[in-house]
From TrEMBL:
Pfam families: FMN_red. It comes from Streptomyces incarnatus. SUPFAM superfamilies: Flavoproteins. Transmembrane segments: none annotated. This is NADPH-dependent FMN reductase. The lineage of its organism: Bacteria, Bacillati, Actinomycetota, Actinomycetes, Kitasatosporales. Residues 6-154 form the Flavodoxin-like domain.
Length: 194
């Protein structure tokens, strides 16, 4: 079986989401994937081609005003060229986001990513973790401390820079990276067998 190719297409306004993108990259690379970080607000033709040849694309953006950032929306609209040809059909997709508030309407951003993936005919890979930090014996240092299922969600204080991204949120993003790479390997073996 060939090595799965995972691309992380993300926007980061103040650096917090970039920390998460790097964590997703580390998790996917640790699981044996070839991984590419692609800043959607600086995307090149070569990077579009990388997305086209990827087995999985992980979408990432901060949550601003209840949805993905404007820069990510510009990228999403630009994918319509791929939509017309269904170029990304049957690729895997996943997502992650960050906001200053514990909830911050992050679910809406993850659902935006899910809808984008569905329009492209992609298969969504969820976080695959039970919620953490929801009992008296739990801790804010638990994986999935914010209790999201659709993807990895993080909370970063708005008066701290990227160094303030919570360690548990970084570990949760690493988990998502491993999960997408491992799922891509399973899908690849299935395609080879079929």
């Amino acid at each position: 079986m060939t090595t799965p190719v995972v691309s992380i297409a993300y926007h980061s306004g103040f650096g917090h989401t970039a920390v998460l993108a790097e964590a997703v990259r580390a998790g996917a690379a640790g699981a044996g994937a070839e991984v590419h970080l692609i800043k959607v607000d600086e995307i090149t033709d070569e990077q579009w081609e990388t997305l086209d040849r990827s087995d999985a694309i992980v979408f990432g953006s901060p949550t601003y005003m209840g949805t993905a950032s404007g820069a990510f929306h510009v990228f999403a609209e630009a994918t319509s060229k791929r939509w017309f040809g269904q170029d990304w059909k049957d690729k895997l997709a996943a997502g992650f986001t960050n906001s200053a508030s514990k909830s911050g309407d992050k679910l809406h951003t993850l659902q935006f990513f899910q809808t984008l993936a569905a329009q492209h005919g992609m298969h969504w890979v969820n976080l695959g973790l039970l919620p953490g930090w929801n009992a008296s014996t739990a801790s804010e240092n638990d994986l999935n401390r914010l209790g999201f299922f659709a993807g990895a969600a993080a909370q970063s204080n708005n008066d701290q820079g990227p160094e303030g991204v919570h360690k548990a949120d970084i570990a949760t993003a690493e988990h998502l990276g491993r999960r997408i790479a491992e799922t891509a390997q399973v899908f690849g073996r299935g395609r080879s067998a079929a």
